[in-house]
C-alpha cells in the first residue's frame, strides 16, 4: 500500500518543488552520512511515497543554520501523482521544519540549479539594545551600536555588475573562478530590523555571510564606503576576516526563464517570520558556508 494513493507507474518524470525550511536544526542542505540534512529528510520522505530511491538536486546548497523560504529542487520519479497530491503527501510526512509550497512537472532537460537565471539571499539584522525572542531565530541580534543603513546601502551600490568577488569567498571552494554577476544589492530598514538583499547569477562559497560581516563594519562607522569598495575590488580577502552568523540568512527565491509553478512570485518579507509577501520580488542562492563569527557575534575566518 502506498503512503499516498492514486499513483500511476511508468517512465520516469521530473518533478520540481518549491520548498521552505528552518535551518536551525539541519547540518545544511547537502546529504552527509549520519547527519540530519535537508536533502536527507526530503529524499527519505519522498522514497516512502515513490517506493524507489530518489536523488534531489537543489538550486542552492545552503549551509548549517541557513534558512530557505524559496528554495527550488527537483527529482525524478516513476510515481506519477498529481502535483497537488505530491504537495499534500510530502507535507503529511515531512518534519515540522520543512514544508513543500508548490510542485510542478518539468521537462527532462530542466534542472533546478543549471536552468536557474538568478538567486537571491536576504540577511536580517535586529539592531536594538534589547533582544526580541521572536526574531532571534531568523536574524542576527546586534546591540553594540546603531548601524547606519544608508551607509550600508551606499556600500552595496558598489556591487552590481560582473566582477571578481574573491574577497568574499571562503577557502575550500572547488569553483575554478570567483566571477559573479550581481544584479541588485540593497538595504532597507524598518525600525529595529535591517534587511540586506542581494540577487546574483550565483554565489561564492560563504559569500553572503562574509559580505554582511564587512557591511557591518561600514554600518558601524569603522570602515568608510570607499575602504569597503577598495578592499573587495582589490580582492583583499585578508582584510575581510569575519562572517555574520548563519541564522540571519535566508534563500528567498530562484528565477528561471519560465516559472515552473505558474503562480505569483513571492518576495521580500519581514525578517522575523521567514514568510514572503505576495506580489513582491523573489530571490535566490549558491553556496553559503560554515563560517565563524566576528567581534560581537562574529569570529575570525581563515
Give descriptors for this structure.
Alpha-Beta Plaits, alpha+beta, 302 residues, 2 domains, 10-stranded mixed β-sheet
CATH fold category name of the largest domain: Alpha-Beta Plaits
Sheet of most strands: 10 strands, mixed
Which CATH class of the largest domain? Alpha Beta
Considering the protein shown, what is the CATH homologous superfamily of the largest domain?
Pseudouridine synthase I, catalytic domain, C-terminal subdomain
What structural category do the secondary elements indicate? alpha+beta
Supply the CATH architecture of the largest domain. Answer: 2-Layer Sandwich
Assess the beta-strand content as a share of residues: 25-35%
Low-confidence stretches: 1-8, 264-295
pLDDT averaged residue by residue: 87
Number of strands: 12
Distance between the termini: 52 Å
In one word, what is the shape? globular
Q: Helicity, in percent?
A: 10-25%
Q: How many helices?
A: 6
Q: H/E series, N to C?
A: EHEEHEEHEHEEEHHEEE
Rounded Rg:
19 Å
Domain unit count: 2
Amino acid at each position: 500500500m502506498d503512503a499516498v494513493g492514486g499513483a500511476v507507474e511508468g517512465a520516469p518524470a521530473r518533478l520540481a518543488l518549491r520548498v521552505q525550511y528552518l535551518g536551525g536544526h539541519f547540518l545544511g542542505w547537502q546529504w552527509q552520512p549520519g547527519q540530519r540534512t535537508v536533502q536527507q529528510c526530503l529524499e527519505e520522505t519522498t522514497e516512502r511515497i515513490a517506493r524507489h530511491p530518489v536523488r534531489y538536486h537543489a538550486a542552492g546548497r545552503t549551509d548549517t543554520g541557513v534558512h530557505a523560504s524559496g528554495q527550488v529542487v527537483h527529482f525524478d520519479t516513476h510515481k506519477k501523482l498529481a502535483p497537488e497530491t505530491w504537495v499534500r503527501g510530502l507535507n503529511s510526512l515531512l518534519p515540522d521544519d520543512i514544508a513543500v509550497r508548490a510542485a510542478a512537472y518539468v521537462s527532462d532537460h530542466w534542472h533546478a540549479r543549471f536552468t536557474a537565471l538568478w538567486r537571491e539571499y536576504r540577511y536580517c539584522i535586529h539592531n536594538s539594545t534589547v533582544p526580541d525572542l521572536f526574531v532571534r531565530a531568523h536574524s542576527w541580534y546586534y546591540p553594540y551600536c546603531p548601524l547606519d543603513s544608508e551607509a550600508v546601502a551606499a556600500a552595496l551600490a558598489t556591487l552590481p555588475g560582473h566582477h571578481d568577488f574573491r574577497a568574499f569567498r571562503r577557502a575550500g571552494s572547488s569553483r575554478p573562478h570567483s566571477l559573479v554577476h550581481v544584479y541588485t544589492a540593497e538595504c532597507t530598514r524598518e525600525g529595529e530590523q535591517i534587511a540586506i538583499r542581494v540577487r546574483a547569477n550565483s554565489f561564492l562559497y560563504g559569500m553572503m555571510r562574509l559580505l554582511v560581516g564587512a557591511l557591518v563594519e561600514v554600518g558601524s562607522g569603522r570602515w568608510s564606503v570607499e575602504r569597503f569598495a577598495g578592499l573587495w575590488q582589490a580582492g583583499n580577502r585578508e582584510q575581510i576576516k569575519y562572517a555574520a552568523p548563519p541564522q540571519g540568512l535566508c534563500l528567498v527565491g530562484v528565477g528561471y526563464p519560465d516559472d515552473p509553478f505558474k503562480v505569483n512570485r513571492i518576495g521580500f518579507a519581514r525578517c522575523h517570520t521567514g514568510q514572503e509577501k505576495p506580489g513582491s520580488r523573489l530571490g535566490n542562492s549558491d553556496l553559503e558556508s560554515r563560517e565563524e563569527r566576528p567581534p560581537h557575534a562574529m569570529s575570525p575566518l581563515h
